[in-house]
Amino acid sequence: MEKLKTYFAESWDEIKNKVTWSKYSELQGSAILVLVASTVFALVIGAIDWVFKTGLQIYYKGEF
After folding, report:
1. What is the CA angle 50-55-58, rounded to 5?
2. Is position 13 within any domain?
3. So where does this one cross the membrane (predicted)?
4. Distance, CA of 22 to CA of 10 (rounded, Å)
5. In a domain, 63, yes or no
6. Considering the entire predicted model, what is its pTM?
7. In the predicted model, is pLDDT for residue 25 greater than 90?
8. How many domains does the chain have?
């Protein structure tokens, strides 16, 4: 039990005093970058999906 107490005490000390935390403005910038990149990626994948769907519909209807 004493080892467990020591582990938690040392872990808390490391988190509180030794870890370098990012500034809030840096976190905001990173979050915005991830949001924009995810949106662009989703739009590209959606466009590719639409092109394939439309192409296959035209092919199977015989309207080419």
Report:
1. 125
2. no
3. 31-52
4. 22
5. yes
6. 0.63
7. yes
8. 1
